[in-house]
Amino acid sequence: MTGPAVPAVPVADLPPDAALLDVRENDEWEAGHAPGARHLPMSELTARLDELPDDDPLYVVCRAGGRSARVVAYLAGQGYPAVNVDGGMQTWAAQGREVVTDNGNPPEII
């Protein structure tokens, strides 16, 4: 049984100025993330809702798209304009988009 469909966009169709919220866990973020993305792990989301940026829409990304879809469904239920990034960071990297780290290590998607 599946839940209601959530707004989604393929990585290839993301606007150049898309406001990205990465909901992966800390180790995944540290291994590699999109430049300019903001980080708020899914496991901390409900406790940190006040930290959500006020972008409209907010593009939510995880490793493959599953966690971000759940976050988008939750945020939509709260009336927050969020869109799931289909394929997540795996597709982002596979399409040759830039992946960065904050610690100087070579970036990877884990």
From TrEMBL:
Report what the protein is called.
Answer: Rhodanese-like domain-containing protein
InterPro entries in the record: GlpE_sulfurtransferase, Rhodanese-like_dom, Rhodanese-like_dom_sf
Organism (species): Pseudonocardia xinjiangensis
Q: Which Pfam families match?
A: Rhodanese (PF00581)
Give the Rhodanese domain ranges: 14-101
